[in-house]
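Appendix B, record 7
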Amino acid sequence: MNRSRFRTTVSATLTLVALALGPTLPSAASSTSLSPISFTWRKPMTAGNCTMFEGARWTLYPSGRATFDGTVTSGDNNDAWLMWARLKDENNAVLGTLTNLDIQDRSDRTKFVQGLPSSSQRYRWFASGEFNKYLFPLIKRMSLSKRC
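Structure tokens (predicted):
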């Protein structure tokens, strides 16, 4: 067999092997095609005079971003709802804590705060956070710590 024909045969064989193995290997596209995960609280939560109503929701994205949408109120004027959101695995072990993108307390970047100026109002709360995107496939649960 001459060299030219040998190279063509080897090249064709390697191409066939690559095509055969390609679909079984992980790709960058598969890691970015993950769907967001949402955690919705189905019951109201209270802390002191404050209440967060049912339907509060954190949505986590494979990019490491997180968004929150909830409604809170207080029985007192000039109050505040404080919240920390922890990410957990299937065994309920803490993987990490969300970091607030709108840093409200430089001494605690994991604290989320919603001011509640009037006890006669409900306040819709939108917040954004981030986490280590490499944890995303491990996240199965969330927990919230709260204070008023």
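Remarks on this record: DSSP finds two helices and eleven strands in the chain. The chain has one domain: 34-147.
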